[in-house]
Structures are given as structure tokens and as C-alpha cells.
Design brief:
alpha+beta; 13 helices; 31% strand; Anthranilate synthase; 478 residues; 2 domains; twelve-stranded antiparallel beta sheet
């Protein structure tokens, strides 16, 4: 059977025949039809779609990958987030009958700062449920259609003409949107040539910022501050978000891969190794990642760099600050806490980090609205103490972080996962704004921290070919 016909038949059956059996308490909530389909790679499928709004999420293990097209529902705002209200709104639209329905999105790094023009469309928070999803559990592939139940569906009652007309109108709309989808995969598109790069702050201002920060450690009682850099790359043509993410993904395993495309020209993408937290019912998982070395060109050099990292007093101190902070927070949130005693090395494609796993059993009366503001921002992206570090970051950094280093992920009925949006970039047409930071503690040296930031964006910058100056000049005259 033709794939489109198979999907359309299942959607039609649910809306016209099965909807009347949905319990009345589902009124206003989001419903879902899922259809098993032949294997399709979600990101390559997503790249082919013509929708203005696209959403992509892949967890670190590859156990769940979702490519979303369009938007059924949106909960977003420009004002600082009210966590209990927003998480309450998310939860009231979800139900245990359809546990795979999830809101995908994120929250701005700083809720106290007016929104920079570069981040205006993302807002201080934005979560959406896609209209259509293609998702895989690593083995099987499914196509899903999400839609909202309404009073016109007349749950638990016999059909009459009005609800039937409403359902037919909903079905006609869904099928019309379905015909616009392309179920063939695509080849990875070529990336445009890079023609310019501007670092903010530049090398001199970076050194100045670190010197200023270190000078205030005593006055502010700071143990650590994370200072970041924005590198703006300009290209000879517009970037295609999914094509860029597909180029990044093979070289960045064991990372969260995400893409939140707001319109055809603007998107936020990344390949973050860091989990903020995962919650399933009362089980809470988080982790400490801090301290960085580049990867070695050989196994011997790589091992030497790992040993150097594992035995570095500065990096061990920086990492322990994160662990101590997490233990304090988990003790407040959880009835019981388990923190790995053995320090491990998290090896990524370009860099390696010190890593500690932290778990807890959440207190029964607490929710995601309690967890998220406690954990974000972590000392790995903010500093210690948090309040003093964030205030100094706002004074020193000459750009808005927006969603960089902020929580991005998904919220389900009784399951939630957020990553820390590091190793990330914002696409605006022919511009790519890359972000990365370095943890500054006593003894930090500006040139070493600059090199660390450079290593952290290499998984992006290594993909691009820069035009020679003469060709750039010729291009500008064209």
C-alpha cells in the first residue's frame, strides 16, 4: 500500500470511527494517531519538507529520534517565565492515554534581560507540539499526527450531525497538510562557503574580561565564572539548518542533537554532550561536566591528555565545584541521592571532559517547575556562587546568550528531558552565530581559555571552507 494512503487511512479511521470512544476527560487535550512505517532517517526526511516550522530532537543514546513538521500547539512568551504556570499549562494538555505526545522547545538563559533582536522570535520560552512527527526508537519507525480534542467531538455520546461535521473539517485539514509531505530521504546538501568571521569579544577584549573577572573573585567571593564568546560566521549563501546538523551529527556521537527552526531563515541548532536532567516519574538523573582537554591525534597522546586532565588541580577544582553544587540541590529536591564516587572522562570528537553521574528520587510533592529553576544555570555554564557569577557575566559579555547554554528539550505527561544547549549556534539566513564558553577559576590564563573555546566550536568551524580574500572581494562586487 502506498505510504501516504496507509497513513491517511489510519488517521481517517481514528477521527471518524474511534474518536467517540475517547473518555470525556480528554476534552481539550492533545490526541495522537501513530502508524508504523518503513525505515526512514528522520533528519534527512525533515530536510526535504517545505514547512516553515521544523523541530528535531535526538537523545545521546540514539534510543529516541523525532523530526517534527508544522505546529499544532504553542506555549511561548517574551516575559520572564513563571515556572509553575507554564509547566501547569503544558501538563494540562497532556494525558497518560497518549504518552508519546511531547512539547519540544527551550527557555532563554537569562530571564531578567530584555530580549535581544537576535533572539526575538525564540522569546524567553517557547514549546510546541508538532502537527506531524516521524520518530524512531532506534529499531522501529513511526509516523504520528497530533490534533486537539474539542467539545464538538461529543465524547461518550452518540454521533450527531454537528460533531460529525467538525470531525470531517478536521480530517480534511489534516489530509490536505499530509499531501504536502515528501516521504523520500535526501542527500546531505553542500554547505556554502564562509566569507567572514567576527569574534565577540575579540582576543584583546577576551583577555581584558578574564583579567577583570579574576580581579573581582575576592570582592564577590567567586569560586568560578563561565565567560563565553560569540563568533559570527557569514557565508556566500543561506545555510540550511537540517543540512548543517546532518553534517555535524556523524562526528559528534554521544550528544543530544537538536534543531528548532522558527521560520525558513531562522533556527537554533546544536550537538550538546550535557544533560541538564532527565525525569521519569520520581526518578531524577543529572550530571556534572567540567574541565576540558582537546582530543589527541593518537591513542598515546589522547591518553596523556586524559591523564593530564584527571590530575590537573585547576580542572579538578572546577569540576568539584559543579559536583558540590549538584549535591546541595539534589539534597533539597530528593528523598535520596546517589553520586558516583569514581571520576570518569567523557570523550567527545574534539574535546574530553571530567564527568560525574548524579541521581536522586524526587520528593513526591515536587515537579519539573521545582527542578528546572534549581538546576539551571549549572556552574558549568554560569558559575559559583550563581547570583554573583550571573551578574558579572551580564556586565562583561558584549552579547546576549539567548538560548545558548539554556535548557532545551521536551516535556511529556510523566517524563521530561532537558539538555544544556552548549556546542550550539543560531542561524539567521547567511549568518551563523556560534557560542562557547570557558570556566574561569583562580589560575586561569586567557590564552588557554581562548584555545579551549576555539576547540569547542571546531566541530562547526572544521566543516566550512573559507573563500580566499580576493574571491571574497570579487563576491562583494558581484
Amino acid at each position: 500500500m502506498d505510504l501516504y494512503l496507509k497513513i491517511a487511512t489510519q488517521i481517517q479511521k481514528f477521527i471518524k470511527d474511534d474518536l467517540i470512544y475517547i473518555p470525556s476527560e480528554m476534552e481539550g487535550k492533545i490526541l495522537r494517531v501513530e502508524v508504523p512505517i518503513p525505515t526512514l532517517e528522520p533528519l534527512s526526511w525533515l530536510e526535504r519538507q517545505k514547512s516553515d516550522i521544523k523541530t528535531y530532537w535526538c537523545d545521546r543514546q540514539g534510543d529516541f529520534t523525532m523530526a517534527g513538521v508544522g505546529m499544532l500547539d504553542e506555549i511561548a512568551g517574551d516575559i520572564p517565565i513563571d515556572y509553575p504556570t507554564i509547566f501547569g499549562r503544558l501538563r494540562q494538555n497532556l494525558s497518560p492515554l497518549f504518552p508519546q505526545v511531547r512539547y519540544y522547545g527551550g527557555i532563554g538563559f537569562s530571564q531578567d534581560r530584555s530580549i535581544d533582536p537576535n533572539w526575538k522570535l525564540f522569546g524567553n520560552y517557547r514549546f510546541i507540539v508538532p502537527r506531524f512527527e516521524l520518530w524512531t526508537d532506534g529499531i522501529n519507525t513511526f509516523f504520528a499526527c497530533n490534533f486537539r480534542a474539542s467539545s464538538g467531538d461529543n465524547f461518550d455520546s452518540d454521533l450527531d450531525s454537528a460533531p460529525e461535521r467538525l470531525r470531517q473539517r478536521e480530517l480534511d485539514s489534516i489530509l490536505a497538510q499530509l499531501t504536502q509531505l515528501d516521504f523520500t530521504p535526501s542527500e546531505i546538501g553542500s554547505l556554502p562557503l564562509q566569507i567572514d568571521r567576527v569574534d565577540l569579544p575579540n582576543r584583546d577584549d577576551w583577555q581584558r574580561n578574564i583579567d577583570l573577572a579574576l580581579a573581582k573573585f575576592t570582592d564577590l567571593a567567586l569560586d568560578k565564572i563561565v565567560l563565553a564568546r560569540q563568533s559570527t560566521l557569514t557565508f556566500a549563501a543561506d545555510l540550511q539548518p537540517q543540512s548543517l546538523l546532518r553534517s555535524l551529527k556523524p562526528n559528534n556521537p554521544h550528544s543530544y542533537h537538536f534543531c528548532f527552526q522558527i521560520n525558513p531563515h531562522i533556527a537554533f541548532i546544536g550537538t550538546s554532550p550535557e544533560r541538564l536532567y532527565y525525569r521519569q516519574d520520581r526518578l531524577l538523573k543529572t550530571e556534572a561536566i567540567a574541565g576540558t582537554r582537546q582530543r589527541g591525534e593518537s591513542a598515546t597522546i589522547d591518553r596523556q591528555l586524559s591523564d593530564n586532565l584527571r590530575n590537573s588541580p585547576k580542572d579538578l577544582h572546577e569540576h568539584q565545584l559543579v559536583v558540590n553544587n549538584l549535591q546541595t540541590i539534589l539534597n533539597e529536591l530528593c528523598d535520596s541521592v546517589t553520586i558516583d564516587r569514581e571520576l570518569t572522562i567523557l570523550k567527545l570528537n574534539k574535546v574530553q571532559h571530567l564527568y560525574t553521574q548524579c541521581d536522586g528520587v524526587l520528593k513526591s510533592h515536587l515537579t519539573d517547575a521545582d527542578i528546572l529553576p534549581k538546576l539551571h544555570p549549572t556552574p558549568a555554564v554560569g558559575g559559583v556562587p550563581r547570583t554573583q557569577a550571573l551578574k558579572l557575566i551580564e556586565e562583561l559579555e558584549p552579547f546576549a546568550r539567548g538560548w545558548y547554554a539554556a535548557p532545551v528539550g521536551w516535556v511529556g505527561y510523566d517524563e521530561t528531558e532537558f539538555a544544556v544547549a552548549i556546542r550550539s549556534g543560531s542561524i539567521d539566513g547567511d549568518r551563523l552565530l556560534l557560542f562557547a564558553g570557558a570556566g574561569i577559576v583562580k589560575g586561569s590564563r586567557s590564552e588557554e581559555e581562548w584555545a579551549e573555546v576555539e576547540n569547542k566550536i571546531r566541530h562547526f568551524t572544521d566543516l566550512f571552507t573559507e573563500l580566499p580574500p580576493q574571491q571574497i572581494s570579487d563576491l562583494s562586487l558581484a
